[in-house]
Structure formats: C-alpha cells, structure tokens
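Protocol step 4 of 6: structure prediction from sequence.
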Amino acid sequence: MFKNIILAFLVLSLCSFSISVGDSDLRPIKENSFDFRIDTEKLLNGSYQYFISYKPKGELPSGTKKDDFSRFLKYDIYNVLNKNKDEDYHVIMSKTAYVVDAPSDFFSSNRVKDLSFIRKTLPEYEVSLKEDGNYKIGSSGMAPDFEYSLRTFYPEYKEPLLKYFLKNVTTHDYPGKTPMMVTLQHNYNFSTVLWQKTNKMSVVFCAYYPIGENKTLIINHTLNLVHNVPPKLIGGSDMMIDMIVEGISEYIAATNSAVKDY
C-alpha cells in the first residue's frame, strides 16, 4: 500500500510531468541544504541533485530546522494550513535539479498541457481533462487518484504567487539566470486508500532553462502536506525517502521515451 502511495507522491512531485535525460544509469547527488547550488557540469554528465526535508506530524522543529521549516511554509501559497487548522500534516519539502535531453524550445505552455503528451509520460496512469481545464489522474491498485491544475508563465514574471520561488531560484539555485518558463502545479482532491487518507495537497514549482547543446535544465521545488506515511515497523520515513530517491531515478529514465515521439 505505502509503496504505491509513495510512487504516486513521486509522480506528482516531479515537475509538470516533464521528459528527462535518456541515461538509465542516473547518479543521484544528495545535497545537505535546500539552498544547494546547481552543478551544471555534473548534471550534464548524467547526475541529478536533490534535497528532501521531512517534518513529522506533530513535531515542533527548533534551531536551524525551525528556520528552514518557516521558509518551506512560504510555499503554501494557497494557505492550506491556515484554512485547515484543525488538521495536522507531515510536511515534505523537496528540491530536484536535472537535465532533460531535449532542446529548450521543446517546452511550451501547449506542450506541458497537451493531454497526449502527458499520457505518454504517464503510461501507467489514466489521465483525463476535466471540463474546468484541470486534470484528473486515475491510479490503479493501492495508489490514490488525484486532480491537478497547471499554470505556465513567461518573463516578465509578474504573478505574485511566483515571487518567493523565483527569489530562491535566482538567488541560490542558479544565480543571475532567469528561467525561460515557469510552471505552477497544484495537486489536490486525493482519494483515500483502504479508508486511509493519503495526501492533502502539494504545490510544485518548476523553472526551465536552456543548457548545453539541445538540452534543458529543470529545477523543481515541491511542498507536500501528507496525512499518513509508512509506519516505523516497516521502515517509516527513512524507507519513504529512500523510495522517493529510487523512484526519481526510475521516473527520469522511464519518461525519456516520450521525447522520441516528437
């Protein structure tokens, strides 16, 4: 059960379902700070960088962790925590950077919103377009269904919801570089699995940059509010994080096939 939920979490965390580098032997680089600097040389050579922070439900962070947690909550741009003060959540904040084996002009608002393209990158999920323009992801087995909205932005970036993300990206991640496009994805309406609540919601920001020869750098910041994680008896949060990292590699490699159709 929890493995499928974690894999669903992974799918919704990795940007707007973007295609990725074709090397199936990706080398993950674990970073120790959310403010890690992008290492383009390593990314171009088949690595990806990541950072994951986890705050258990009910835990009150202190010191540096408290400062980090306060920063992460600024990604709650829809004020979910304030609107649901009677609920408590596990908080997972992640940042991932990787290079996609496709030219920068491959990505556009039309591309990332195209239903056929999304389906190619998510062959194991049922993806449908709702009447309101949002998307529904149908999962089989023990993974939850959910819905998501997707917005795209181009320079000059004037949308207030992007302000904090862009500040972090241009200050810490890739200093002085303006992304060619930014996507904002909101995942919500997660179904229960075996009568258990899964995720409350997640907010996914992605910045796209041209890099190298016919390649694209994607930087992803994701805030997840989660109802339940695996119990300690079967590995707890450590197992969850290990599976997320493993799944990132699998997802990046598997979705590369989508680019071959374009």
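Step 5 (inspection) to follow. The chain has one domain: 2-261.
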